[in-house]
User: What shape does this take?
Amino acid sequence: MRTNDIKQGMRVYLNSGWEGTMQDNRKGNTRMVEVEGIYTEIGSVYAHDIVGVLDVANAEWVKVEH
Assistant: This one.
């Protein structure tokens, strides 16, 4: 999966080890994500920091291509 194919509401796994929920349908270098880290907050994340997307049908993480 490519970063531009990630849609709003999809679960993402970040390079920092934290998970989040995609909050926009935009394409480009920065995306809006609700990150569940030490605190839960919404903010911009660089697309290259997104390393995985949860495939709900198979319940497994799919690697993201940049």
In short: The mean pLDDT is 94. The radius of gyration is 11 Å. The longest strand covers residues 30-36. DSSP finds no helices and six strands in the chain.
